Amino acid sequence: MKTMLVLSDTHGNKRAIAKLKEVIGESDYVAHLGDYARDIDFIREQYPEKVISVSGNCDFSNDTEKTAVIEGVKVLFTHGHRFGVKNGLERLFYYCSEKGIDLALCGHTHIAAEDESEGVKLVNPGHMSGRGGEKSYAYLVFDKGNVYVRFIKLSEKLF
Q1: In what order do the strands lie in the sheet with 103-105?
Q2: Residue 82 in contact with residue 104, Cβ under 8 Å?
Q3: What is the number of other CB atoms lying within 10 angstroms of the CB of residue 63?
């Protein structure tokens, strides 16, 4: 069994990320799906083996996609802007289906969501930026080929 904290669209809100210190410490992985991916550099310094990050449309890098196999689940890490996720998920689902991806993690929309199509599960953790709506992240548990997802919404008062 492995656990993962998934963040996206932090847009410079390192203070909100720092509040997750306990969750970060106990998670096997910490993923950042872009738009200020450098916001977790302090986590990478402390736990270099835990961090998986990709760039978003607000980052200055072309490192926009990674894959990993975790507990038998093939995972795609992407921000989502290159797949046009604000206009629908069809392109992303098709791409994942073609590549044999079981789970797609993406951000960009700032809306926490879980969806499934063509045998692919998609998880968007929402955002931690304060730009519209409630801040949220996703906490995933990988166990023998299964993925269990929980969204954690954070009160604006905390940050």
Answers
A1: 65-70, 73-78, 103-105, 120-124, 113-117
A2: no
A3: 12
SS (H, E, C) the chain: CEEEEEECCCCCCHHHHHCCHHHHHHCCEEEECCCCHHHHHHHHHHCCCCEEECCCCCCCCCCCEEEEEECCEEEEEECCHHHCHHHCCHHHHHHHHHHCCCEEECCCCCCCEEEEECCEEEEECCCCCCCCCCEEEEEEEEECCEEEEEEEEECHHHC
Rounded to two decimals, the pTM is: 0.94
pLDDT in tens, 70-117: 999 999 999 999 999 999 999 999 999 999 999 999 999 999 999 999
CATH topology of domain 2-158: Purple Acid Phosphatase; chain A, domain 2 (3.60.21)
